[in-house]
């Protein structure tokens, strides 16, 4: 193994190259990214960074000099032009770079509102990159009116920041309720109440008919419930699509993302995938995880497996979200739940997801203890009875024994 190329200089790409060096790999490493900046963390983009509470230099995962110091060639602002999987080369501009192993860590791109309903007007934003947030930040100002389209975590976090910065905020969700794809009604109820208490107008079951523009800039919107309002800016948080362009160039199998096996290897044994773009086997099906922890863990497993470890990657899903003064921590994956037990400790609250009395996941709101114990129970394969976790008299820690 003399040459490894990683495409995608984000969370997974950066974790993969660091792990390759940490494991003692001494061959050439090239990390190729189409953004103009070194790898950075995305979660603060819709939280502390947009709020103006986190400096730019704290976003970067490592100082740029670290890559050169560790013999990692960083090619930034460089979208990949071609991949020849037979010849094992990647073309970037005029350079044809050979590889022995290729890692696809290309992440995802936010869905945009269609241009035919005004999605291409100035003042309509998405939240994925530093450039996206730097472009929207000057518009997130006191007294202006924001329409947030989409009631998932990105939309809700953006709504919280916009409110904290003194905007008048309306959030619309076309599905019957917010967080419909990712959380139980109990968690949606909690966050709806939180946002409403902070003055956000949340409309559920209401889609966007179209945006109104003047001189190429958004000035308002018509909602599918017939309401028409002026808005100064719009933020769309309506999901993502996998960046599978390089995977298509390489001709590897796609299946709701870049299909990998349990080791992170694609249908081409010389090509691996990790992070948001990878779909991996899990509990008899395939999943794609959009979280930092998965990007790091999967990329590190891929690095080891390229070097011959043969290690299975078993995700231990973990996610968080900050909204106002609430920290939500999620352990596990709730897919397929049939029951939710609520542990209502007032300020500290947790929602425990079960399927056939097996504990799958926990949403913990300002409840780090509930989160930590839930996570350990899930990892240990232990499932306390739902009635027990709902009982505040029950000592959760004792359940770990
Ligand atoms: P990315 O970090 O997106 O990196 C992929 C990189 O590949 C990008 O730089 C992309 O431009 C580049 N690329 C794509 N195609 C090419 C190409 N053809 N050539 C060259 N480069 C290419 N997760 C959490 O766990 N907790 C949170 O609170 C949380 N909050 C989030 C908030 C926001 C606003 C966003 C956007 C995401 C959040 N996430 C959160 C998700 C988390 O950030 C992602 O899961 C994680 O960044 C995935 O890492 P990745 O390396 O797979 O993709």
From TrEMBL:
Keyword vocabulary terms for this entry: FAD, Flavoprotein, Oxidoreductase
Domain of life: Bacteria
A GO cellular-component term linked to this record: cytoplasm
InterPro entries hit by this protein: FAD-oxidoreductase/Apoptosis, FAD/NAD-bd_sf, FAD/NAD-binding_dom, FAD/NAD-linked_Rdtase_dimer_sf, Reductase_C
FAD/NAD(P)-binding domain span: 3-299
Named cofactor requirement(s): FAD
Domain Reductase C-terminal: 318-400
GO molecular function: oxidoreductase activity, acting on NAD(P)H
Name this polypeptide is given: FAD-dependent oxidoreductase
């Amino acid at each position: 193994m003399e040459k490894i190329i990683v495409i995608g200089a984000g969370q997974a790409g950066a974790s993969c190259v660091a792990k390759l060096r940490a494991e003692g790999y001494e061959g050439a490493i090239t990390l190729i990214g189409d953004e103009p900046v070194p790898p950075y963390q995305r979660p603060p983009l819709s939280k502390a960074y947009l709020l103006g509470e986190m400096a730019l230099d704290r976003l970067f995962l490592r100082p740029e000099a670290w890559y050169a110091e560790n013999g990692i060639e960083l090619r930034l602002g460089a979208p990949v032009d071609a991949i020849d999987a037979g010849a094992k080369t990647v073309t970037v501009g005029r350079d044809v770079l050979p590889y022995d192993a290729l890692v696809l860590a290309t992440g995802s791109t936010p869905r945009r509102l269609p241009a035919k309903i005004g999605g291409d007007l100035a003042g309509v934003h998405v939240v994925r990159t530093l450039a996206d947030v730097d472009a929207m930040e000057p518009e997130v100002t006191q007294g202006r009116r924001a329409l947030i389209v989409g009631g998932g975590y990105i939309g809700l976090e953006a709504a919280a920041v916009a409110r904290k910065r003194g905007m008048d905020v309306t959030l619309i969700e076309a599905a019957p309720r917010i967080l419909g794809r990712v959380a139980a009604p109990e968690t949606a109820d909690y966050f709806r109440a939180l946002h409403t208490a902070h003055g956000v107008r949340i409309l559920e079951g209401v889609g966007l008919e179209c945006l109104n523009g003047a001189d190429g800039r958004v000035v308002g919107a018509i909602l599918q419930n017939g309401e028409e309002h002026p808005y100064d800016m719009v933020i769309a948080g309506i999901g993502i699509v996998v960046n599978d362009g390089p995977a298509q160039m390489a001709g590897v199998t796609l299946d709701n993302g870049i299909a990998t096996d349990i080791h992170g290897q694609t249908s081409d044994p010389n090509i691996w995938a990790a992070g948001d773009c990878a779909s991996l086997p899990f509990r008899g099906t395939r999943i794609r995880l959009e979280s930092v922890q998965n990007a790091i863990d999967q990329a590190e497993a891929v690095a080891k497996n390229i070097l011959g470890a043969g290690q299975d990657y078993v995700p231990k899903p973990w996610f968080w979200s900050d909204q106002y003064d609430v920290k939500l921590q999620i352990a596990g994956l709730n897919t397929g739940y049939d029951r939710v037990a609520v542990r209502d400790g007032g300020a500290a609250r947790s929602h425990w997801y079960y399927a056939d009395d097996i504990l799958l996941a926990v949403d913990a709101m300002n409840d780090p203890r509930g989160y930590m114990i839930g996570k350990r129970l899930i990892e240990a394969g232990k499932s306390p009875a739902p009635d027990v976790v709902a009982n505040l008299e029950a000592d959760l820690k004792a359940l770990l024994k």
